[in-house]
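Summary for the steering committee. One of the milestones for this cycle was to obtain a three-dimensional model of the protein with 6-phosphogluconic acid bound, which we needed before selecting residues for the alanine scan. The sequence and ligand used are listed below.
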Amino acid sequence: MVEPLHPTVAEVTARIESRSQDLRAGYLEQLGAARAQGRARGRLSCTNLAHGFAAAGSDQPPLAGLQWPNLAIVSAYNDMLSAHQPLGAYPELIKAAAREVTATAQFAGGVPAMCDGVTQGQPGMELSLLSRDVIAMATAIALSHDMFDGTLALGVCDKIVPGLVIGALSYGHLPTVFVPAGPMTSGLANDEKARIRQQFAEGKIGRAELLEAESRAYHGPGTCTFYGTANSNQMLMEVMGLHLPGTAFVNPNTPLRDALTAEAARQCGRLAHAAERGIGDMLDARAFVNAIVGLLATGGSTNHTLHLVAMARAAGLIVTWDDFGALSAVTPSLAKIYPNGSADVNHFHAAGGMGFLMAELLRGGLLHPDVETVVGSGLSAYTREPRLAEDGRVEWVDAPAQSGDTDVLRGLDNPFAPTGGLRVLDGNLGRGVIKVSAVKPEHRVIEAPAMVFEDQQALIDAFQAGRMNHDLVAVVRGQGPKANGMPELHKLTPQLGVLQDRGFKVALVTDGRMSGASGKVPAAIHVTPEVADGGPLGKVRDGDVIRLDGERGTLEAQVSASVWAMREVAAVPTSPPGYGRELFSALRAANNGAEAGAASLF
Ligand SMILES: O=C(O)[C@H](O)[C@@H](O)[C@H](O)[C@H](O)COP(=O)(O)O
Ligand code: SF4
């Protein structure tokens, strides 16, 4: 029996629609005007058009005419991200498949893709969040040739899918289908990887053993198998109807994966022929509420308290952290994937994956069922999963009605927790977020003296000097978007995890970010206003008692109001030149802050 739409889901949707009314109306007007201009190529001069198909070979005749729609391939391929390396082979597969539905496809442009695993703890991480907006701009540049009637977006990882969505929404009248590569096969278990890292942090093993373990964890093409931001993106693309159903977690370089890529191209061609609606029409308030529910039900990455807000803004919608908080209170936790548990996304997929999850959320009235998707109206198609048919194409079958492993994936009748494990924090240190789904209950409320650090290395040095063997709240500040680009501080997880395992009460408070793969240590992150904007985190001094209450959602420095009022906000060093950081000073200066999506575009 399917429950009626949950009242909180309806209420949050209504308040997003209400506060966004004028912005959304203006955005839809822009889409209507673009659509009214007809087939893109028809607006070009003969000279423009000839330039556009000069190198198109046998596709020149259909491109010279206007009967066949032309699809833009916007790709984040590179060899650096294991998740994107398989994308290199996709364009030729896509072009051939498009022709089967009398459409052409051209590689319209590449977008940059940073690997947060390579840059974690390194200076390059200071470009990572800012790269999301650069990816959005690069997507618009690719589409600006005005040769296209549909978009195929090839990308998976952290900032790439959000950037591609934001960029595609600037051409929101075009149908857009996302095409992933899928997760690498399972290697060293994620919790074993984390245990070995803590041994290295304590000096119990050397670099050779650590590298050997890491190489067994990250061993081949495909997305890393923990449930971080990249795999949260994959889940979101299904819930938002931007993927073909069940495509998220099919491994790369398999016949089914290639069949799905070809079918995505054909489906985009069909949508371009119909020219009825684009990604901007599809991604309405309901789609974003569904996305937040999917994130909460699966314990997804905290980075989406930034990215989903920025993505929604690109569609003319204003989403707030309080919307996340309200939905978290009514969304049960149905999946336990590392760092929320020990399983990885391959286990999740095998246990029933997205098809089972969507069926449960729809049955509970937790998703708007009647949204538009790239395979038509309604989400019921997403309760099915792809199989390779006899003819080598894709067929869809019902997902299992029961979870294949209730340690990884559960139904509404026995959730891991009654709520979604994301809390909004408020108090005299500002506002922030905390993901408690990966934090044991006994560690969710921490009251301890502050140790203040201006950068990650200072904390690592203090740990190695043995100065942290006590209860503490590590305040790592000056890590906001305007200061140094808001890096992830995930590199601190092993040290803080060792202190927690030694029995100390430990928490992290920062205006920076953590990785979607961060977990067991309670972390109040995205604290806003950031210190570089005069945020109160800049008033904290060593020894101040700080209380982080992840259950009640409070973040307080227990300092008298009179002393607090007298304190100056500490100055924070800004990003030094080098690593290209100096090229991003305008983006940092224009950043609109964590709660508004930490974007420099709007
Ligand atoms: O938000 C995320 O999911 C992270 O940015 C992730 O993409 C990053 O790669 C982590 O650093 C991987 O985890 P390890 O660094 O622990 O391998
Ligand atoms: S999941 Fe993270 S570490 Fe893995 S390829 Fe993507 S960005 Fe790199």
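Key point for the committee: The first strand starts at residue 70 and ends at 75.
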